[in-house]
Amino acid sequence: MCVMDASITQRERGAMATTREDLDRVLEYIRAIPDMIPDIEIPRTRRDREKLVRKATLPPELQHAALVAIEDADTLLVMVQHHNPSKGREILGVVTAYDALADRLEQLARSVRHTADVRRAELGDLVLDIYHAAKRMGLTDPKVAYHADIMRKIMQKQRRRSAKRKAAALKALAEKAQEPA
After folding, report:
1. What's the gap between Cα 39 and its chain centre?
2. Helix, strand, or coil here: 179?
3. What is the pLDDT of residues 81-93, one digit of tens each?
4. pTM above 0.70, yes or no
5. Residues 75/69, Cβ–Cβ less than 8 Å
6. Within its chain, how far is the Cα of 59 from the centroid?
């Protein structure tokens, strides 16, 4: 049974909050995906990947022209006997399917990153609400005042870092604008 078969779909869950266990179950499923993809090649090193680039990035027009040529010219087929014209078309179809799968997985990854950012922003709202409430309550409660002081120091440190980054970015932008075109 597939890991995801036992899980609740988003529609069935309705307004139920996402839990860590839900995401762990999805992660377990994702880790199993490579085993589901036929003939998947996982590069062992960066060099392995680089060796493929020259051949793998040939223009599609050249690929198509070569396949047409081998199907059309018997003499060419004799020269490259170890290549079957129908095998080339089959590989092209598989490549197209792999590309579509990769595109969909990349789109999914972008959606997951966006969802994490949305949840991080929700957490930020909650944290800021707590911080502001602690500042107000800290005036009368020494225990809350202690925590409010810790949060205030962290916020000041963050603002200084942010201001330094902003100043550095503005300086770099100004220097770039002064360079001759």
Report:
1. 23
2. coil
3. 666 767 788 888 8
4. no
5. no
6. 26
Per DSSP, 37 falls in state S
Q: Please give the structure tokens belonging to residue 130.
A: 């707590």
Place of tokens 């860590």: 20
Token match 């309550």: residue? 137
Residue pLDDT, tens place only, 103-131: 999 999 999 999 999 999 999 999 999 99
pLDDT at 66: 85
Structure tokens at 124: 């930020």
Question: Residue 129: what pLDDT?
Answer: 94
How is residue 133 written in tokens? 């409430």
Classify residue 145 as exposed, middle or buried by CB count within 10 Å of its CB (0-12, 13-18, 19+).
Answer: middle
Residue type, position 156, single letter:
Q
d(CA 48, CA 25): 32
Report the b/e string of 115-135 with b at 16+ CB within 10 A: eeeeeeeeeeeeeeeebeebb
Structure token digits, residue 138: 């800290």
First to last CA, the chain: 63
Q: What six digits make up the tokens of 152?
A: 């205030």
